[in-house]
Automatic annotation (TrEMBL):
Keywords: Lyase. PROSITE patterns: MR_MLE_2. GO terms for biological process: amino acid catabolic process. One of its GO terms (molecular function) is lyase activity. The keyword Lyase applies. InterPro entries: DgoD-like (IPR034593), Enolase-like_C_sf (IPR036849), Enolase-like_N (IPR029017), Enolase_C-like (IPR029065), Mandel_Rmase/mucon_lact_enz_CS (IPR018110), Mandelate_racemase_C (IPR013342), Mandelate_racemase_N_dom (IPR013341). It comes from the Archaea. It comes from Vulcanisaeta souniana JCM 11219. Coiled coil: none annotated. This is Mandelate racemase. Residues 175-294 form the Mandelate racemase/muconate lactonizing enzyme C-terminal domain.
Amino acid sequence: MLRITDVKAFTVQSNFEWGFIRIYAGDLYGTGETAGSPLAINNVIPYVRKLLIGEDALKRNRILEKLKYAFSYSGTTVYFIISAIDIALHDLIGKYLNIPVWRLIGGDRDEVRVYVDAHASKSMEIVDAALTEVFPDWIKQYGDKTRFETERMSTLTEPMVGRISTQQWNKDYTPENYAERAREIVNEGFTAVKFDLDIPTPYLKDYNSRSGQLSLKDIDYLTSIVKAVREAVGDEIDLMFDLHWKFNINTAAKICKALEPYRPRWIEDPTSAFSSLTLNMDEINLVTQKCCVPIATGENLFTYYQFKDLLKTGISIWTPDLTKAGGITEGVKISELASLFDIEISPHNIASPIGAMAAAHAMSVANTFGVLEWHAHDLPFWNDIVKPKRRIIDRGFIRLTDEPGLGIDLDMDAMKKIWSDFEI
């Protein structure tokens, strides 16, 4: 028996808010990560602690079902917490048995291909759980080492809501900058890169318009960006473009048609129908019928049950986020379902190294795995906050080792240097 003795949680503000849950069994512990906000974690963790202390960590499924029942009135938010607990249990059990998680779950892939999410060219968003831009203290430590508009942020007089760091077109959003950024990433050894295309253009007067429409001039401008990127990196590099639920069906179809000659690997979340808040299978069907390039979605879906509903559509690429969809357990189930229907699974990942490694371990068993997202390419401390010290992502791959559990652990001393108020 591996009796759980304590459960703790802590959060830090990185480019996104990272939430961690640590499960203790005597001197051993496992660490998991959630995409949930600090408020959700802090409110729920006292109840989780009461439910978990005394349980046998080896009976992972029993624990997960107990949590699902206990929080059955809480809606899907509980899966943010369950995701972290599931990852922490896998890490703990792997350490207890002295085997890596990828072997624990029967994986046969010891390296996982990674793509860089390059944002909107030069801009890296730093947002809290409400997608409101923030200016964390660590920015002052790293200065020019991170691609972030520190001068602009230091003079902000009011918070800006949304991913785009400015609501008006500027020189960041040019074909030349996108192409330069793509070349930089490919020169580092990556064979896949994704960019945001839900951006201001020189012709778009109201970026925040809810109409979901673009003029032909706007679409031509976005197409010029994609053309420049493709010409910069050649035909062997996979290119993906994210529309972040921004457009209506007709505009999404026009964008897809315009981009078809440049052979994107996928277009991601083109309309609001792909949001978990407005998941509309009929509209998704219309989008996939009208669009002539592969469509990807799934980062806001929970458990394999919601992905099962996607089988009714023409979606050919699933992008679950395992720090919210249910952790490694649900990641494996989703990948098995995808495999049955020959659907590519390429997880969304805006996590710390803990969440990224959890996704990599889960994908070790995925027959139809494509490529794993990395949203923290520009964070100067991403490798520094874990031990043992090594490059977690090297020339476009995460290599899974024989270290027990997730194979890495948070370096608390390093974290305290970055976040002065950090504590557990």
